[in-house]
Write a structure and sequence with these properties.
By secondary structure, the protein is of the alpha+beta class. It has 3 domains: about 220 residues, 2-Layer Sandwich (BirA Bifunctional Protein, domain 2); about 100 residues, 3-Layer(aba) Sandwich (Rossmann fold); about 70 residues, 2-Layer Sandwich (Translation Initiation Factor IF3), CATH 3.30.110. It contains 15 helices and 27 strands. The chain has an 11-stranded mixed beta sheet. A 5-stranded mixed beta sheet has the order 18-17-19-20-21, with helices on both faces. Strands 4-8-5 form a 3-stranded antiparallel beta sheet. α3 crosses α7 and α10 packs across α13. It starts with a helix and ends with a strand.
Length: about 500
């Protein structure tokens, strides 16, 4: 049974299959009866809860409060902002009726044709329209600004090709929607939230990211500017891990949201929106995990330490339990989530394999001989290194080790990204390098035509214009026309 748990397809053989197997074997999620949707299992949801809790604290520290808006949006709302509706029209699920009735021709139920809605409702693909229609009632004066609102919710976007956590029809996320008196305030908000996301990714997910601005082609539908954090996965593909949008006055004008300024003159407000989703769990998996299963950074691990007793008799089991109890209490007093797994329905070997697959950062094993010698076996999941250490002072040692694992995972991922980030000057060189995967820095002439050609011919997209990138002018690798700076290319999820 333990061998079956760890019998993974190797990443080097089939990365996609490895990923799908890991999600299932680590007990994170499974496919549902609804095509394109997944069931997030308790262990996977516990990771999301830790992400959610930390992000929520970061949002509130920057002045935001939570609210909740309807799941269903009148179809007419999506027609008010032209770019927005065009961007999401093909992904929308539409509610047309409000009642079922017994099938007059047999068993089951059918849609009641007499219960057609006067106006169809859209299951939210995102909430800008319903929120800005609401903000019209909330904003009247400059004294009502800034309005800094976030909501934790689910959204639905039809997807034909899905992969659990990375791309599903329904997913969980948060979406911030803010209103401001000036352009500068709104732009500063969008940039601030980009940095909040980047700090979370690097300090908690141990996932290094590039902070940048999207090209006009890649912007969010209805935005004037989209800021993004881009991460590089182990297979050399990029993952857009979070976005923050400067919306200008587009939605304010579409929904007539005006305020009286300090000179008592009406103005349209300035807007932002920003969000991250359960896609972050996919990013977490693909940044750190290995051929043995999930590897979790301690700050987001539901179980940071597991203690497994090894015994032959009930007396030994009881004796080990008494020895472990104060260790568990001390670890918990230090804010560490710890599990003492003394269940007698699974062998220690199975437990070792199970917690390794689930990515628990630190494993402690204690047997009868350890009790006699005052030692305990310690294993760290990131390196799989094992050592026998003194039982005395083990709690402090574990706390330090968790910090070390967190930092090691970040540095390992950062080195991998740096080793797979390359600079090219010619299109022929670009075509060769992009086949190897990774980030490519190259000059681009700034036109959507050249951008589209590169995407069509190489399947690579402009991930962003890095905020701290090389601003040295050059010439476009494709057309030879002047280029203001290098931009970041990659194939992506």
């Amino acid at each position: 049974m333990a061998k079956e748990l760890k019998n993974f397809t190797k990443r080097s053989d089939n990365y996609s299959q490895w990923y799908n197997e890991l999600v299932v074997k680590a007990d994170l999620a499974e496919q549902s009866a609804v095509r394109g949707c997944m069931v997030i299992k308790p262990y996977g949801y516990a990771i999301w809860e830790k992400m959610q809790r930390q992000l929520d604290d970061m949002f509130k520290a920057t002045g935001h409060t939570n609210a909740y808006f309807p799941l269903l949006i009148p179809k007419s709302f999506l027609s008010r902002e032209a770019e927005h509706v065009e961007g999401f029209a093909k992904e929308c699920a539409v509610v047309t009726h409000y009642r079922l009735k017994k099938n007059p021709e047999g068993d089951g139920v059918v849609v009641d044709p007499a219960a057609r809605l006067e106006e169809e409702l859209i299951i939210r693909p995102t909430s800008e329209t319903i929120i800005w229609n609401t903000y019209k009632n909330w904003i009247h004066s400059y004294r009502d600004l800034p309005l800094l609102i976030n909501q934790w919710a689910n959204v639905f976007r039809w997807e034909m090709r899905t992969r659990m956590f990375l791309r599903t029809a329904e997913f969980l996320w948060q979406e911030g929607h803010t209103a401001h008196a000036t352009r500068d305030e709104a732009q500063a908000e969008a940039v601030q939230m980009l940095h909040v996301y980047a700090d979370f990714a690097e300090k908690y997910m141990a996932m290094p990211v590039v902070r940048g601005v999207k090209s006009a082609t890649e912007r969010f539908a209805g935005a004037l500017e989209t800021y993004t954090i881009e991460a590089l996965m182990q297979d050399g593909k990029a993952l857009q891990a979070g976005t923050s949008h400067f919306l200008g006055q587009n939605f304010a004008k579409a929904f007539d949201v005006q305020f009286m300024n300090k000179e008592n003159k009406p103005e349209y407000v300035w807007a932002t929106s920003w969000g991250v989703s359960t896609r972050l769990i996919g990013g977490l998996i693909m940044t750190h995990s290995d051929d043995n299963g999930l590897v979790l950074p301690p700050k987001l691990a539901p179980i940071q330490v597991v203690i497994i007793p090894i015994y032959k008799t009930e007396e030994q089991r009881k004796e080990i339990g008494e020895k472990v109890a104060p260790i568990v209490a001390e670890l918990r007093s230090k804010g560490i989530s710890v599990k003492f797994d003394d269940a007698d329905n699974k062998r220690p070997g199975f437990k070792f394999a199970d917690y390794e697959v689930k990515g628990v950062p630190v494993r402690l094993a204690l047997g009868a001989r350890d009790l006699e010698e005052g030692t305990i076996e310690l294993m760290r999941r990131d390196t799989l290194e094992k050592e026998t250490v003194p039982l005395e002072g083990i709690a402090d040692r574990v706390v330090g080790l968790l910090d070390d694992i967190q930092e090691n995972l970040f540095q390992k991922a950062l080195k991998a990204r740096e080793a797979n980030t390359r600079t090219v000057d010619t299109y022929d060189e670009f075509k060769k390098e992009i086949e190897k995967g990774g980030f490519i820095l190259a000059h681009w002439d700034g036109t959507p035509e050249t951008e589209a050609r590169i995407k069509e011919e190489t399947k690579a997209t402009i991930r962003c214009l890095p905020l701290d990138g090389d601003l040295t002018p050059g010439v476009c690798m494709v057309t030879g026309k002047p280029s203001a700076r290098r931009v970041l290319f990659a194939r992506n999820y």
